[in-house]
Amino acid sequence: MRPSDGGYATAEAAVVLPTLMLFGMGLIWGLVAAAAQIQCVDAARAGARAAARSDPASATVAAAEAAAPEGARVSVSREGDLVRVKVVVRSAGPGPLTVRLSGEAVALAEETVG
What would you measure as the largest C-alpha separation in the chain, in angstroms? Predict the structure, then answer.
């Protein structure tokens, strides 16, 4: 007679399935955060291009906000011939999983060239 293994598979599944769910949720959160980071960088580039063309500050901020994730803060500063655009946002996630994401771009103002 072999001893019965009844219940072992159920106990193992009860431990493994929640672990797999948490791992999957962590992967999804990481992808969402990475996508928001890429959006911040793209938004900063769009704002820097607009500022380099000598667009008004409102147009520069509007260009960056159009490409930025929801709730992002855009700041534009000028340092000599360079225009710096910074986009900052908090990632989506519960409690301690929210992280600060930012993107920054610098462009040479066109009126200073040539």
Answer: 93
